Amino acid sequence: MTTETTSRLEQEYKNIVKATVPVLQKRGAEITKRFYQLLFKNHPELKNIFNQTNQRKGDQPIALANMVYAAALHIDNLAEIIPQVMPVAHKHASLNIKPEHYPLVGENLLLAMREVLGAEVATDEVIAAWEKAYGEIAAAFIGIEKEMYEENVKKGGWTDYKDFKVVSKVKESDVITSFYLKPADGETLPSFKPGQYITVKASIDGHDYTHQRQYSLSCAPNENMYRISVKREDAIGENPAGVVSNYLHQQVEEGSVLSISCPSGDFVLDMNDTRPLVLISGGVGLTPMMSMLESALLWQPEREVIFMHAARSGNFHAMKERLLEVATACKQVKTYTIYDNPATSDAGHFDKEGYIDTAFLKKVLPSTDAAFYFCGPKGFMRAMYQNLKSLDAAEDDIHFEIFGPATDIKN
Q1: In the chain, % of residues over pLDDT 90
Q2: Domain-terminating residue out of 134, 154, 174
Q3: Kind of pairing, strands 277-282 and 257-260?
């Protein structure tokens, strides 16, 4: 086969894939929902990897649908979706996804396409084209994740999971508790970047499969221990209580052993930027912001920092004593506390009742020539993004991480 013929055939399959863009935009979530049903039916052992809570909420199928749609749209140049791929690849690395998992995913994704779209739309030709496209996408992920695993080991980290002992358990608020973790083997810890997370793998009595959950590291990097600060997810309406968060709060104590992954994630503080640093958090979104704050205090002690935290009330405000300590001791740091439903006992201990809005930001920000990082519930992050854009903050200066498409925040 000549190079010209090979090139022509490759373009033909790409054209077929691109022709599926409209139907993927319309029915992508339906396809990926069915895909997960098939995957877990055919390979129930993979429930040990995938977050079943995100399955129930529908977050995972929607996230995958958007990735499949983006891949089809940019099949001529998959490099264009690297910004979307990298956060997913970090999640995969944190979950220790292996190359052998990808064929299982591909097989069931194609089955779901054919089943949902029907033989008239998902013809043999379409399925064959998507099989080639999936092969390219999988190869890209496998290559990126291989580099991540190798980099972890090079920096003194590990692959798969490593046992850590809980050396301290500290209640931070009515719903958030911190766990201080040290390697059970006593070895030195590798560093991490402020804003990264680890995966906790929990084997819980009465459950047929393990549960993996990712939690941001809430301290500055150090060689002695990691800290995660976990919100207890209580049952609300149709949403059941969080399996892992309640396990950690109720069953894990000092001396318990947890299996965790090497730190991962690309929502990290840029330590080369010396402009004012604005950290904005809502609820448990405080955790990566605290890591960034503590890191800035260590390595950029002259940098101006503005820290805003929104919570329901003082009872739900984690680490408020540490923030007060920082604000008192460090003249370059200004902190602002916002409660939307303050208790009587909170009088005099917060700066604003209600929400962080554009008017408040305009009042407390000296300039929009700054680096903005925010984290919290999806609605909170949508509001922060829109507020900052209304103040003409540059897109490149706005940093956040979300499970799912960025359009959930930007639109």
Answers
A1: 68
A2: 154
A3: unpaired
Residue with tokens 């002690």: 301
Q: How far apart, in Å, do the first and last CA atoms of the chain sit?
A: 48
Alpha carbons 129 and 353: distance in angstroms, whole number: 56
Q: Which of 225, 260, 295 is the last residue of a domain?
A: 260
CATH of the domain at 32: 1.10.490.10
Chain length of the chain: 411
Contact 283, 316 (CB under 8 A): yes
Distance CA 320, CA 112 (A): 49
* 305-311 and 197-202 strand pairing: unpaired
My answer on whether 7 and 148 are in the same domain is yes
Neighbouring CB atoms inside 10 A of 76's CB total 11
373, 369, 346, 350: which is closest to 360 by C-alpha? 350
Backbone angles phi, psi at 261, to 5 degrees: -90, 170
Give CA torsion, residues 110, 115, 117, 118, to 10 deg: 120
Would residue 389 count as lying in a domain? Answer: yes
**pLDDT tens sequence across 164-211:** 999 999 999 999 999 999 999 999 898 899 999 999 999 999 888 899
| Residues 9 and 150 occupy one common structural domain | yes
Report the catalytic residues: 102, 145
Q: Are 302 and 406 within one domain?
A: yes
Residue 272 in any domain: the answer is no
User: Do 117 and 108 touch, CB atoms closer than 8 A?
Assistant: no
**CB within 8 A of 219, min separation 6: which ones?**
225, 226, 227, 290, 291, 294
In contact, 278 and 372? CB cutoff 8 Å: yes
| pLDDT per residue as tens digits for the range 245-283 | 999 999 999 999 999 999 999 999 999 999 999 999 999
Element (H, E) at 124: helix 124-154
- E strand or H helix at 298, and its extent? helix 286-299
- Domain co-membership, 390 together with 317: yes
Segments forming the whole domain that contains residue 107: 3-154
- Distance CA(395)–CA(392), nearest Å, equals 9
Q: What is the pTM of this model?
A: 0.90
Are residues 140 and 256 located together in one domain of the fold?
no
